[in-house]
Amino acid sequence: MILLKFDKRDIVLVVGLFLFMIGLTPFTGLAAAAVLVIIMFFGIKLYVEKRKQSIASDVGEGLCMECGSVVVDKKCPNCDYSRE
Fold first, then answer.
1. Contact call for residues 70 and 60 (beta carbons, < 8 A)
2. What is the model's pTM?
């Protein structure tokens, strides 16, 4: 389940989409522009949350500070196994 919580940086997104809506109103009307901006807001929020989840699952336990590979079982597959 994806939980969309409101972060501080979302204020920038809301202001940007509001300005986009103001610029879009002469071409589509206020109601259509508002609906489009609301859909864009939730679409962007869903995309960002899915991207955060995929990055978190790819990283797992963390990254090695020396070579940058993914840490598995608290050991780096490149650095720790080459020392043994």
1. yes
2. 0.69
